[in-house]
Design brief:
The strands form two sheets. The protein has a six-stranded mixed beta sheet with strand order 4-1-5-8-6-7, sandwiched between helices. It is α/β, with parallel strands linked by helices. The longest helix is centred in the C-terminal third of the chain and has 22 residues. It is globular, with a radius of gyration of 31 Å. It has three domains: 29 residues; 35 residues; 202 residues, Aminopeptidase (3-Layer(aba) Sandwich). The structure holds zinc ion. The site of zinc ion (ZN) has 5 residues, from loops. Zinc ion (ZN) binds next to loops.
Length: 274
């Protein structure tokens, strides 16, 4: 009898605890035993999260072994859809002024505007550099921008890149003129280091493309180089005024050769610097 009463009392208590009384919450239901197994084995996102973690560790290890890992490279694809004829000073300590950004040249046979060719080459260069582990900063990735040459230099100064390549194509009244030239500043603080980088890059880009090497020119004529506080080279990739070279410069395969040659040159420069 006592046992029966005790059981009834327990049943009543259990009923109370189960939530009949105000202010007492029902006990949470314990999960079934299999639900207590480690989440990574049981849930949908567990294995994916683990895979992602392994993948990111592997990618990091791979990146550490790439020749340009830890290196920041700036790319300034020359010009833009519309030039800006407002003026800005050509150098920090100069009163001489030049147009903020000119409209550039265009292809003698293709008619393609230089700013288009420059960006196509630059995007391939970006990809080639990233494939070697570099961190790449672009002044523009579209045509419809308005960024002066001084602002472009300032952007790269702010990013603190190891080297900037300003990608351009040349033009001349002499339609037979062809080949690649590199331009660096002559007098500012980055002149010497920029020249050193240019010396590493010119043979490599000519080797990859088969283009004629027109040398390294040092002068203080260019706003983009004069305002740079990080090593900076203007790459004149070839002559759009030459009908044959114009076709090459606007050919995707040739653009990849340019990108590969420039990347190899940068690898040599960074390797020699370290
Ligand atoms: Zn140009």
């Amino acid at each position: 009898m006592f046992l029966v009463l005790a059981l009834l009392a327990c049943a009543a208590l259990a009923e109370d605890v189960s939530g009949a009384l105000p202010g007492i919450q029902p006990m949470p239901t314990l999960p079934a035993p299999e639900k207590l197994l480690p989440q990574a084995e049981m849930t949908d996102d567990g294995p994916d999260a683990a895979e992602e973690m392994v993948e990111s560790v592997v990618m990091e290890l791979v990146a550490q072994k790439l020749p340009l890992s830890g290196v920041k490279i700036g790319i300034d694809p020359g010009h833009q859809a519309h030039g800006n004829n407002e003026r800005e000073t050509v150098a920090p300590n100069s009163t001489e002024k030049k147009a903020k950004v000119t409209s550039g040249t265009s292809g003698a046979s293709t008619g393609i505007a230089e700013y288009v060719t420059n960006l196509e080459i630059s995007l391939k260069l970006r990809d080639a550099l990233q494939s070697q582990g570099a961190e790449v900063y672009m002044t523009r990735e579209s045509h419809d921008v308005d960024i002066s040459n001084q602002q472009r230099a300032q952007m790269m100064n702010d990013y603190g890149v190891d080297l900037v390549l300003r990608i351009h194509c040349d033009g001349s009244e002499n339609r037979s003129k062809s080949g690649i030239a590199l331009y660096c500043s002559r007098s500012n603080a980055i002149a010497e280091e920029s020249f050193r980088a240019a010396e590493a890059i010119l043979p490599r880009v000519c080797e990859a493309t088969g283009a004629k090497a027109n040398g390294i020119v040092q002068n203080d004529n260019y706003t983009g180089q004069n305002w740079s506080t990080v090593p900076c080279i203007m790459v004149e990739c070839g002559f759009l005024s030459n009908p044959d070279e114009d076709r090459l410069l606007n050919d995707a395969d040739y653009q990849w050769k340019l990108a590969a040659g420039l990347t190899n040159g940068i690898i040599d420069y960074i390797g020699a610097r370290e």
